[in-house]
Every structure is written in structure tokens, then in C-alpha cells.
Amino acid sequence: QRQMCIRDSSHIVLKLKSGYNIGIELSEISDIKKISSPKEIIEQNNVNDEDSSLPKILLLSTGGTIASKVDYRTGAVTPALTAADLNDAVPEITNIANVDTEVLFSEYSENLQPEHWFEIATRLDSLAKSDYMGIIIAHGTDTMHYTSSFLSFALSGFPIPVALVGSQRSSDRPSSDAAINLIAASKFLVESNTKGIFLVMHHNDNDQTVACHAGTRVRKNHTSKRGAFETMGSDPAFIVTPTLEIKKNIQDEFFKDAKYNPRMKIDTKVALVKYHPGYDPKLIENLIQTGCKAIIFEGTGLGHVGRTMYDVVKNAQENDLFLGMTSQCIDGRVRMTVYESGRDLLELGITPLENMTPETSLVKAMWALGNSKDIDQVRSLMLENIASEF
Hints:
- With 390 residues, the protein is of the alpha/beta class.
- Helices cover 24% and strands 23% of the residues.
- The strands form six sheets. The protein has an eight-stranded mixed beta sheet with strand order 7-4-8-10-11-12-15-16, with helices on both faces.
- The longest helix has 14 residues, at 178-191.
- The radius of gyration is 24 Å and the shape is globular.
- The model is unreliable at 41-47 (pLDDT under 50).
């Protein structure tokens, strides 16, 4: 029940039925028995005739595990695949749509910076009037929800549905989730009759069910399992079933009715501060002195920080910083009028950000700063529901 291959002059790699691999030094092997041989697979040129009856989609690659292979010498996952390789590796997509491919860059998502978000947004904006039915962005999972948040704000009302798609396991592993995620995303793009920015990944332990999350309401809640992403506070906007049916969970028509209003400027002088007992207020003073323009607090419970922070919060407000409050709790809504401490913080100038996630609040503050003239306009944008972030 194993496949065997030689990866270098000193090692053999066994591909186990479970999908995992083990490497064995040749010098340690005393005997090898051949039990069976796999059927011969004849590789063909990766040229697919387009079906004129099918819609067109574009596959943009930015890197990440979905565009990687395992280096069997070291066991590490390394960037290797192009957008075209991904398309060729999942031929089922050609039954759903005609796929064009393009590589924007090849980076693990932990290396992506706001300038990469801007590059993606600029390319998407250039395609707003194209004849593509949808666009897939192959992306690493670690920071995919940050990218989806920025694109949601910068390209609010984008007329073509966009699906950021990743995988928790590299594409060349039998346990990879890359193929089903790409297939489901393609089906979603051509049949959902919606628009906007979505993050498309495994839904749960069912390997054939895929969730399509609104780009501003999702976060990665598990380090390694395939169903790592969850929509906060409700069900995913759409579900793609094992039979590739599209089930809609959102009740409103926000994505469908919003007019396209690209605003792609960004100012990264924002800090996300996770308050904890013993937090040193001097750290906030340092942020003020280094030119920080906004602070998003990840407070406790309903949205609190300790009274040891009050003086520095007041100082930040007097220096015209935008101060927003989110919660460390995984779910729920900030309500700063319930306790005296919350009301004190309101009087000190902190703005409650309802049920917006800390990560989305951070990205939105960067976007709001880039597209505002003053702190009052920043505050107004932060409280406006731009892309279903509330």
C-alpha cells in the first residue's frame, strides 16, 4: 500500500497510504520486496481546447502552500508552482470554466506587506470591466484574511466575484486540500450570481464541503487543520456542497447591490494593541512619539482596558490619534456602556467597533487613514459598513 521513489543518491521516500511520507537512508535498508506496480500514467502536453460555451475565469497566483511542493531531501515546503501549474494540476476546473493564468508574485503570506495588497488591488481594478466571470487569487493562508479585508475595502462593490483560495497542505501531497478548494471556488465564481471579495477554504471535517467566507468576517482559527477558517458570528456567506451545489446563507443583498467605489490608498501607521494585565502604558507613549496615527485596542470582554491605561489613552486622544476598541473574545460584540470602566473609556475618546474583528479593524484603519483628510473622517469611515465588516 505504499509508493516508493528515489529522491537523491542516499535516500528513498515512501509515500504511505495515509498521504504522509517517510524517508529512509539506503545504507539502512537490508531488503526490498516489490509487491505490485502502479498503472503507467502517460503525461500529456498541458494544452486544453477551450469550450466556447463555458465562462472565463482568471487564476492569479501570489504564492503560499497552495503554490508549493515538498522538498523530499529536507522535508520543507518550498514555493514551486505557477498559476498555470495549478490549473494543469486540477483538470476538473476545465469542465467548469476556461481558465487564464497569471503570476503576480511568489511569496509565503507571512512575507506579504501592505504594498503587496496594493499590487493585488491595482491588478484587480484593471480587470473591473473585463469579461471574466470571476477571479481566483491563490494565496498563503497565514495572512489571507488580512489581504481579503484590504481588498474588500479598497475595491468595495467590485463587480466581479473574487475568491482568495489557499491550502493547508501542499498541492503535491495526497492529503492536500488544494484541488477541492480550487474546484469549489471555480464553481462558486461562475454560479453564485454575486460579487465582492471572498475567502474560499474547507468548511469542516467533511473533505468535500467548502466554505465561501465574506472577506471581512473571516479569520484563521486553527494552525493546521484543513477547516482552519471560520466566519465570525454567523455561518459562511455561501457553502459549496460535495455535489458542487451553491448554498447561500447571507440574507441581505449587500454584495450584489453595492456600487463599485475603488479607494486604494493606505497608511500603515496603525498599531494593534492586545491589552493584558501588566501592560506597560509607556508602550503607547512610544507609539505616539513614533508617529502612530491610530490604535486598535484588543480589549478584554465587552471592550475594556485597565485604569492604568487611562492617562495614556487621554494623551493619545489629545494627539489626534484614532482609538478603536475590539474584543479579545472570539465571538460577540463590544458594548462599552455596560460597565463603568467602559463608559470611562468612551469619555476618553475610544470608539467601540461593534463586532468587527481585530484583524479587520486594523486593516480598515490603515485604509481609512489613507483615504481621509482628518481624524473625524477616519472615525466616520470606521463606523460605516463598507463591506459587511459589521
